[in-house]
Structure formats: structure tokens, C-alpha cells
Structures
1.
Amino acid sequence: MKIDLTETTASKINKALVEGRRAVGTPAIGMVLTLVIVTDEENAYDALRAANDASREHPSRTLVVIKRVSRSPRDRAKARLDAEVRVGTDAGTGETVVLRLYGEAIDHAQSVVLPLLLPDAPVVVWWAVNAPLDPANDPLGALAQRRVTDAYAAEQPVEELSGRAQTYTPGDTDLSWTRITPWRSMLAAALDQAPCTVTSAEVEGEEFNPSCELLAMWLAGRLNVPVTRKVSPGPGLTAVRMESSGGTIVLDRPDGSLATLSMRGQPDRAVALKRRETSELLAEELRRLDPDDIYAAALKYGVDRLADTDAQPAPQAPAAGEDAAAKPAAKKAPGKKAAAK
């Protein structure tokens, strides 16, 4: 069921939500959180579809904030709020409100969103595009316990990661980090199976891919070894090689779907390591609302490492994909001295 409201208010939107629930026969819905999506008109459909898919695991009230900038100076000065209320099958397993802000209302989006938040429920804000440099100090981000960005959507992903490190606040996270969760799990499991001392590592993937950068930072920080970045045609993150006292450990995924784990003294094993949809990434982030200390450590470790790239040409925007890649070829992460700092 959809209810369109023109030049409306938050009070009328709440009333429409109640009427919609009664009309579809669900006067009470067990929703676990409020998900605020900040996007533009062009990307709103994809973002909302991902949120609806994620709501099967996390029933939520989804508020989509779309800031519409008018070309006319006269219209830019006039505050206006249009809304589309969706309940029932049109809203996944929760409720959805699409908010279109015009004029002066754009600068006060938090005042529009605040009355629509579920009482006594956590708030998560996801910037599908155009994330602020400091999410925690953004007016909408200040309402949330968890703030989700995506460095891959930025024009310069490497610089975006550096900026995220400088402004990091507990509760911040990034979908570029979420994309490498299966890789981190598989590499950690491989080292558990064959206890050894890792001496160096190499991360291979597309150029200008923030997920590759974050994985390299994580390995360098956790293992305290030099990590080399190697550029490949992709798709996304393609391989990790670790030199150790027990031989070379290789996790290779050339096709973006099926990977091969190779270790000395053991047969090669095929492991499922497919590139995940945005809805799966979002669902993973909604499972935890506490600060991600491992992400924070990897992100902050990369500040000195990324500082070495200042002399490199500015990166261009990458093509669309999931595992994004963020660095010129064959740059070494700081070794033990940088980690000790």
C-alpha cells in the first residue's frame, strides 16, 4: 500500500503510517531499528531495494531522505516536504517513508527525520552516495548509533579512506570494509590450520579499490609485516599471498566467485567467495550496533601508509563494482617500525 503526501508535515506522515497499518491489517509490527538512507533521486531505487531485501533479516522503519535542489532561486528559498508512505508488501517486512526535501528544508533534514524515528529503538544512518567527511558530526549522523558509508562511491577512494581515519568516531563503518569479511575469515582460518610465522604479504586487486586497501592495512597491522599492493584486472579483490615459515599461503579468486586456497603440504581447496550484493553487506552491518574496533585499527593504521601516496597522480573514479580497489601498483605498507608507532 502506498500513500502519497504533498507539502506535508511529520505529524501527517505519522498519521498516514497508522492508517496504512490498519488498512493492511497489521496494527502492530515488531521492528528492531530505524534505518535512515541518505541518497539522491538517481540512486534512490537501488538503495531502497537493498534496504527492503535487508529488512527480511532486520525488520525496520526505513526513512529515505532525498534532497531535491531546485534550479529556481525563488523555489530554493521555499521549504517544502513531500512524502511517500509504504506499508505492507510495498515496504518489505517493515515500513518505508520516502522523504523529498525542497528549499530550506534541505538544511534541516534532521528536524524532519527526528519525529519519525521509532521510539526506544536504535538508529542507523546509511549514506548511499555523497557521504559527509565527518559522519558523526553530520546533523543526521548525530541521531544514529551506527553510521554506514561507502568509500567506493567517492571520486577518490584512497583520499576518502584517509579522511575517514582522521574523523573516525566509534560507530562509524564502511561497506568497503564489509566486503572483505569473508576474505579476513578465510585468511585467519588458514593461519589457524597451519601455525607459522608470516614474514610478508601481497594483496592483489583492481586499482583504486578501497576494499583492497583496507585488507592490506588489516594484514599489515595485525601481522606487523610489510604488505605489497599489486594491481590486477579484477574483478575486485583477486588474490592474497602470504610468505611464511611454513611456505606460501595463497588465496586466489580470479573470477569473482570461486576461490582456491593453496598451502604447502595440503591439497588445494575450492572455497565459495562470491562478490556480495549491497543488500547482503547492509544486512551484515545491521547485525551489530557496537563499535567495530578492528575496522578502526585497520583504518588508522593506513593513515601513514596513505601519506606516502601524496606524490602520486590523483586517482580517477572507478567503474561500478563491489570490491573496489584503491592504490597505485606495488606500494609497500610500512613495516614493523610504522606499526610500532
2.
Amino acid sequence: MKNAPPPPNLPRQAGQGQRPAQGHFLTRLGFFLLWLFHWLPLGLQAAIGNALGGLACLFAQRRKRVARRNLELCFPEKSPAEIRRLLRQNLQATARAALEHGLLVWAPASRLEKLIRVEGREHLEACLGRPLILLAPHFIGLDMGGVRMTLLTRIASLYSRARNDIADRHLLHARSRFNRTVLASRHEGIRPLIKIIQSGLPFYYLPDQDYGRRESIFVPFFGISAATIPALARLARVAGAKVVPAVTRQLPGGQGYVMQFYPAWDNFPSGDLEADTRRMNAFIEERVREMPEQYLWTHRRFKTRPEGEAGLYD
């Protein structure tokens, strides 16, 4: 068996100190195990991931509480038993996707092309060569879709450094090892993003998280006012870009993933920033209802509330 190839060396962030030796050891051990797992057939990896997800139901109490609360808020019509079942499925899908990240770091392109099927490719190809934003909601197959995109064409995306520098090197390597992917920092502002989009590189964009009150507007998501960054419409307007949704679905067992491209949105942006942001959230909600076990429910999507409204996670 070959030795696991080292990830690229990256400069340490200013002010980032040395991490405890024990933390380094555990992180290296974790990635060594991922490297071992990536040699296994996908069906066996899926079975192990589902088992780990079952254990997470017992031990990952904080994530479990957040996910359960989100499911209760978004699906009030479901019974407690249905919420528990959906929660378990979500933790299993999340654990499986985490385990399969080893494939993104070390598997050859030929294996990834078989693992991650592409559907609706004509919608992507119709917009290539012009400013293009790929709307990629936070489903658990998000990284699978992002790496699959880099096998189709050169792309750009945002990148936030992981807190652990070893994990950061591996994740950055996975996202940039094909086709010289351009990764822009979230902290550099909007101007570099506009230049990247206008250059013709498809921009793989993840806009559906709660980033706080600053620059957010409140629009419905599952009938709940959710703080949402309206940057999709702003970027599309300033860069003159088309928006093509790209959603990645995890398939059962050893069947892999499907990355689905949707038709480019007509009349977007419309000139009404709130209406455009509502449209984005409504589209994401429709996809969530199609596969509710695969959304990022462990994120506190509703943590920022309108003035005077009580918190939803207390």
C-alpha cells in the first residue's frame, strides 16, 4: 500500500500560534484513518458512515440539539417519532459524507468521476464563458459537488480557513487539486469576487447560512424570518452574471452522489433585492423538502432574530 501523499504547505495565518502536540496527533490520526478508508469500496464506507452517524445520536449532544430544534421549527407537522427518525438519518448522512472526504483528498479523478454523476450538464454548458454564479446550498454533498465541478472546468469559490491548520491543508488540497481552482478569502470583500466572476470563471457560491445581523435582511425560510445575506442578487447585478443552481444529492449505499444543474434563472436579479432573496430561499426550501435528511441542520440557521424577538435555541 502506498504512503499517503502529504498535503501542500500553506503559510500560517498571522497570530496563529502552535497547537498542542496532542491536537496535532489526533488530527493526523484522523486523516490517516480517512486515507485508509478511502481504499474501501464505497458501499462499505457508506455502511461505516451510517454506523458512526448512529453513534453520533448518542454522543454528539450539542449538534443533535441544534439539528432537532431546526427540524422541529421547519417541520411542525411532523410527529416526535418522525423528527427523531429524520434526525438520525441526517446525522448518518453527515457522518458518511465526512468519512468519504478521504476520497476528495486522495482518490484519482477517474474514481471521482464515477462516484459523482452529473445531471443537467446542458444548463451549465449553456452559460460557460460568461459571468456565472453557481448557487450551491448547504447540503451534505456540497464538497463532493464542488470537487466534481473542478473536474468539469476551472472554477472559483470562497474559502475560510479551518481552525486546525492540519485539517486546513488537507481540505484546501481537496478543493484545489484539479484545474487550478481559485479560492478567494471571505475577508477580502466583494470587489475581488466581482473581478473573478467577470473573468468568466464559474463561481461556486454558498449563501444560505446565518452570518449575523450585519448586511443581512430577514426573509422567510420555512415560514420563519431568517437573516439572509442578499449578496447573490447583488453579485449577479454588478457582475452581469447568470445564476445556475447546483445541488448535490447523496445516494443510498454505494451509489455515490448526483450533482444536478438547474436551468439559469430568468429575470434575476429583478431589481427588488428582497424579492430576489426570497426567491433564493424559496428555491432552497423546495430542494430541502425533496431530501430533508441531507440539509445542514446542525447549523443554527435562525440564531439571529429580528429586533425584540426571542431566541429560538434557548
3.
Amino acid sequence: MTIKERKDGHIDICLERNVTSDHNSWDDIFLVHRAVPRVDLEDIDLTLDLLGRRIQAPLIISAMTGGTRKAMEFNRLLARGAEEFGLGMGVGSQRSGLNDGGYLPSYEVVKEFEVPLVLGNIGAPQLSSAQGDKRYGPKELEQARDMIDAHAICIHLNYLQEVVQPEGETYVSGVLENIKRMAKEFPLIAKETGAGISREDALALKGCGVKGFDVGGLSGTTFAGVESFRGGPKETRMGKTFWNWGIPTPVSIRVVDVGLPIIATGGLRNGMDVVRALSMGASAGGMALQLLKAASRGYEALSSELDIILDEIKATLFLSGALSVSDQGSLKGIMMGRTGEIFEGLYR
């Protein structure tokens, strides 16, 4: 199967199949209501500085795709939305663009728009010493940056997907050393893709010099599930076995709090979930599947969805007694149910 076929297949599966985890942990986060809000709704300030860039709301259009004509059209729509609403945006893995210039337009389309925060995307397995001469280094990261005028590069840690994927690359030797070397030259974000980041790994990655985390926790799209729909009998079985593997997103936010910015991706469905993430300690929320589905219906649908999400964020902050996005101390989020039990179990 070609890279193009695999990437288009991932998009189709996400749009047509149920590929979310069996339990969404955001339903376990209870926000305390304030009967008397502290400021008029219209005065709630959604703007924030993230990774040295000013964005107009605590929302990142998370990395989704690239490398095909279909991906190019999605990236154009998403970048247009990011420009209109002043949001951050990430692209999918840029490996195909680095390996074959023919795929570049599907990523470069982002540069047609004034996106205030653009995040590139390179896979951790490509940084492994096991790749030999094919190992990515500063040259490839510079190319990835220039491809989309990125302000930072995400190193995506997708080993769960690689374990299940027929073409999976499970190389990890030398990855941390290479991240440490390249973090001296580029702002890097450590990004999971659906299984969350532990405190031990957060501390190790902070020691390597990353500038922040995208926890990409369990609750939303499970790429083990995605792969279960496109492989043979073994991949189908493995995908089902590991469907719900990982650290729930709210738990990962809490344990990854080591003094760096945190983007909470994984299962966010609306603006209330974004504020729930803020109450756990995230700097911003990241959405992928929700916005991919909206974009599949055209730009008007995507713009409407983003507009509603931002209104939901403002309303939830208002009803929770917060003055602004940065007023996280006023948010009282309580972790309950199965998610709370997992968090408590980590500290027994």
C-alpha cells in the first residue's frame, strides 16, 4: 500500500467508522457552577500567548493529515478556519513531503493563510538511530519548518499505532538523544497521538529541552482502532485488543504538569470540554475529529462549528466564574468516576 493510499484510508476510516475509545473521560470532569458570575459574558477574554505566539482562543486545530490531494483540500479548509478565528493549527506527519517533493503542495497550502501558530509534525521513529542513513536530523527539521513556515515542530510519539500498523516502525533507540540534540536548534513539542504521556516520560522529554507537550490522551480517536479497519486478521485482532490502551487525557494533563505549556488533545468534543481541560491545567485544547467531520461538509460548516465552539468556551468560563482563559485558578474541575480512580491509583 502506498503512503497516499494509507493517508486517504485514514481519513475515510475516521469519517465513516466509529474509531473513538469506549469511554470519554471528559464526562468524568465536573465543573463547579457559579450562580453569580464575576464578569459580564461579553467581557470574557479568550486570548492567550502560547509558545510565544498570540492566539485568539485556547483552541488548536490539531494535526490531521497531509500528503494527498484530499489532504490538501482539508488542510486548506482548516488553515482558512485557523486564520479566520485566530487559532493555532498543526499538520499531519510531514514524512511524505520530506521524502517526495510531489507531496509538498498538500502541506504548503497552509502558507496561503495567516495562521498565528503553525505546528509542524515529524514522527519519533524517524529520529531513531535504527534508521541509519535515513534518520532525520536538523536538515530534515529545517525542511519541515520551511515547508509550512512552522513556529514549532511536534515530534509525534505514535508507538501504539506503529505496533498495530502493518507497515509500523517501532524504532526507539536513540530517539531521546536526537530530540535533545535538535531541541537546541528548533522549538520542539512532544506530541502523543491517542495514548497519553506519563509523568516519567514528561520529565525525560523536558530534560531533552522540549518546549511543551500535546498529551494526545485516551478518550478520542484510537489509532489502534483505525488500524483495525485497514489491516489483515492480525492487525484487526491487535487493533481491537489495544482499542482502549492509554492514559486518559485529563489524567495525562495532570501528570504532565512539569512547568511547560500543555495542549490537551484527545476526545474534546465542544467548548465545555476545552474548559474542562483548562481546569485540569492545560494551556489550550486541541481538536481533530470534530473539526475533520465539519470540514468534510465544506467551509461554511467548519466556520459554523468553530464559531459555536468558541461561544461554548466563553459561556463555560462565564458560568464557572472565570474572568479569562488565563484565570484558571477560578476554575474548579473535579475528576470523578473511572478517570478519577485511575488518577488516584497513580499516586497510591
4.
Amino acid sequence: MKIDLTDTTASKINKALVEGRRAIGTPAVGMVLTMIIVTDEENAYDSIKAAEDASREHPSRTLVVIKRHVRTLRDRTHSRLDAEIRVGSEAGTGETVVLRTYGDVSDHADSVVLPLLLPDAPVVVWWPVEAPENLAEDPLGALAQRRITDLYAFDRPLEVLEQRARHYAPGDTDLAWTRLTLWRSMLAAALDQARVKVTSAAVEAEADNPSAELLARWLEARLGVRVDRVGSAGPFVTAVRLGTADGEIVIDRPAGPLATLTLPGQPSRTLALKVRPTSELIAEELRRLDADEMYAIALRGDGIKETV
């Protein structure tokens, strides 16, 4: 069910949500968090689709904030809020409110969002594209326990990565880091099997890949060795090589969903290592809302120097 409201207010939106749930016979129970998505028109569809897919694991109220560009003098002087409300099958297992702000309302989106938050539930803010320099001090970011960005959305991701490191606050995370979960799990499992000391390391990836840089920093912090950054044709991270006295430990994924694991003195084996869709990455981030200490260590390139 969809409800469109033009030149509306937060109180009218709340009233429409209640009426929509009543019309389809669905109570506002079972939703575990509020997800705020701050995006533009171009990326709104894909972002909403990913959030709705993730809501099948984490039922939530999704508030999509789209700040419309000023085009005319009337836009600059006339503040307006339009809303599109989706409940039932139109919104996954939760409910979605698309908020389009005009004029001065765009500068105070937090005052629009605040009355629409689920009571006594965690808040997550996700910026699929452009994001503020300091996430925790942003008016919308300040409402959240978890703040999600994506370095892949930027033309110069490594410069933005350094920006994220300078302004990191507990609760910040990035999908470039989430994409590494399977890589980190497999590397940890490989070292558990090999039980050898790593003396050198290299990460192979396409140039300026933010996931590769985070993985290299994480390995440096955890293993206490210098990690070389090696260029490859991609896509994304294609290989990790760990040098030991007995030979190399290698995870190689040149393309496709399969990788090859090579351990010294053992036959090679095939591993599933697919590139996961955004909905799976978001669902993973919603499983824990506390501070991700390993992300902070990788982001800053510091931390404990011990075996994985």
C-alpha cells in the first residue's frame, strides 16, 4: 500500500502510517530499529531496494531523506516536505517513508526525522553516496548508534579514507570494510591451520581500492609485518599472499565467486568467496550495533600486533 502526501508535516506522516497499518491489518510490532537513508534521487531506488531486502532479516522502519536541489527563487523561499509512505508488501517486512525536502527544510532534516523514529529502538544512518566529513557531528548522524558509509561511492576513496580516520567515532563503519568479512575469516582459518609465523605479506587489488587498503592495514596491525600493496586487474581484492619459513599461504580470487587456498605442504582447495550484494552487506552491519573495534584499528592503521 502506498500513500502520497504533498506539503505535509511529521505529525501527518505519523497519522498516515497508523492509518496504513490499520488498513492492511498490520500492527507496528516486530520492527527492531529505524534505518535512515540519506541519498539523492539517482541512487534512491537501489538504496531502498537494498534496505527492504535487508529488512527481511531486520524488520525496520526505513526513512529515506532526499534533499531536492534548489532550482528557482520560489524553491529557495518556500520550504516544503513531501512524503511517500509504503506499508505491507510494498516495504518488505517493515515500512518505508520517502521524505523529499525543499528549501530550508533540507537544512533541518533531523527535525523532520526525529518525530518519526521508532520509540526505544536503535537508529542506523546510511549514506549510500555522499556523506558528511564528520559523521558523528552531523545532525542526522548524531541521532544514530551506527553510521554506515561506502568509500566505493567516491572518486578518490583513499583520500576520503584518511578523512574518515581523522574523524572516526565509535559507531562509524564502512561497506568497504564489510566486504572484507569473508576474506578476514578465511585468512584467520588458514593461519589456524598452518600455525606458522608470517614474515611478509602482500595484498593484490585494483588501484586505489579502499577495501584492499583496509585489509592491508588490518594485516599490518594483527601480524606486525609490512604489507605490500600490489596492483592487479581486479575486480576488487584479487589475492592475499602471506610469506612464512615453510612457504606462501595464498588466497587467490582473480575473478568469479570462487577462490583458491594454498597452504605450504598441502594440496590446493577451492573456496566460495563471492562478491556480495549491498543488501547482504547492510544486513551484516545491522547484526551488531556496538563499536567495531577492528574497523577502527584498520582505519587508523594501528592497534595490537599479534597473530590473527
